[in-house]
Write a structure and sequence with these properties.
The chain is 27% helix and 26% strand.
Length: 265
C-alpha cells in the first residue's frame, strides 16, 4: 500500500509574536514545528503500514528549510519525503497550495491513500485536504476519528461532523483528513533520528512539475484569496449584576434591562 502524508511546517504558536501594526504574524519570532494535526495523520499512516505493509511518503510544500520537517517525519516512521519548493510558490492561499500539492502527487505517480491533518494551526481553514482531493479527482472523507477496517480495495472509517458520527467506506485511491482524537503520535527514537539525518529526499520545483502545474495557478498569481490584515480582537469582560431586593423586584428589573436592549422585540 502506498500512502502519502501531507505535512506543513508551522511556527510554534505558543511562542510566535504578532505584529499588530502590520497586522501579520511574525514568523521569524519563533521556531518551527510540524503542524500538530499532521503528526496524527503521519501516525495513522504508519499504523496502517504496520498492519498491512506498504510505503509511507511525507509530502510538504515550503522553503528549503522545510527539509527538517520531512526528516522528522522519517524519524517518526515515514519511509521518505518529498519537498515541493520554489520561490514562485510563496504567497499561496489554500487553492494555490492545493493545486501545487495535487500536481506533486500526480508527478509522484500512483498512490492508494493520501492522509492529512484536518487543519493547520496557523491557518485553521481545513480546506487544503478536501481541495487537494477535488483536484486529484478522488473521493475524500474529512474529520476521521477512527479507522475501522483496511481492505485491499477500500478503507472503512468513522467521520465525526458536528454532533453526528458517520460510518463511511471509501474506495482507493482516496484522501482522508484526521482529527487529533484518532491517535497519539509516537516519539522518534534516537536511532531513527540518526537514520533520518542521512535520508535522501525527493525535491520538486516548478520546472519539475511541468505538465502538471502552471505558474499562473500557484503562488500569488494563483491565489484568489488576499489577506490584507489580521486583527486580534481585544479581550472583553462580561458585566454582571446581582439582584438582592427579592424575586419579584429582580424580575421587574430584569424585564426593564431586556426591554432597554430590545431583547423582547
Amino acid at each position: 500500500m502506498k500512502i502519502l502524508v501531507l505535512i506543513k511546517q508551522v511556527p510554534d504558536m505558543e511562542k510566535v509574536k504578532f505584529d499588530s501594526e502590520k497586522g501579520v504574524i511574525d514568523r521569524k519570532s519563533a521556531g518551527t514545528e510540524i503542524n500538530p494535526f499532521d503528526l496524527n495523520a503521519l501516525e495513522a499512516a504508519v499504523q496502517i503500514k504496520e498492519k498491512v505493509g506498504g510505503e509511507v511518503i511525507a509530502l510538504t510544500m515550503g522553503p528549503p528549510t522545510a527539509e527538517s520537517a520531512l526528516k522528522e517525519a522519517i524519524s517518526r516512521g515515514a519511509d521518505n519525503g518529498i519537498l515541493v519548493s520554489d520561490r514562485v510558490f510563496g504567497g499561496s492561499d489554500t487553492k494555490a497550495t492545493s493545486a501545487t500539492l495535487s500536481a506533486a502527487i500526480k508527478k509522484f505517480g500512483e498512490f492508494d491513500l493520501v492522509i492529512a491533518g484536518e487543519k493547520t494551526v496557523d491557518g485553521d481553514t481545513g480546506q487544503v485536504g478536501p481541495e487537494t482531493a477535488e483536484m486529484l479527482e478522488v473521493p475524500h472523507v474529512s474529520f476521521v476519528t477512527e479507522i475501522i477496517e483496511i481492505e485491499e480495495k477500500s478503507i472503512t472509517l468513522v467521520s465525526e461532523i458536528w454532533e453526528g458520527s458517520y460510518l463511511k467506506k471509501m474506495m482507493y485511491p482516496g484522501l482522508i483528513t484526521v482529527t487529533k482524537s484518532i491517535n497519539a503520535p509516537r516519539l522518534p527514537s534516537f536511532k531513527m533520528k540518526m537514520q533520518a539525518k542521512k535520508a535522501q529526499l525527493i525535491s520538486y520545483s516548478l520546472e519539475d512539475l511541468n505538465g502538471f502545474l502552471a505558474e499562473v495557478d500557484t503562488g500569488f498569481k494563483g491565489s484568489p484569496t488576499k489577506v490584507k490584515k489580521i486583527v486580534v480582537p481585544e479581550d472583553t469582560l462580561r458585566e454582571c449584576k446581582i439582584f438582592r431586593d427579592g424575586f419579584d423586584k429582580a424580575i421587574e428589573d430584569l424585564y426593564s434591562v431586556m426591554n432597554e436592549k430590545n431583547l423582547l422585540n
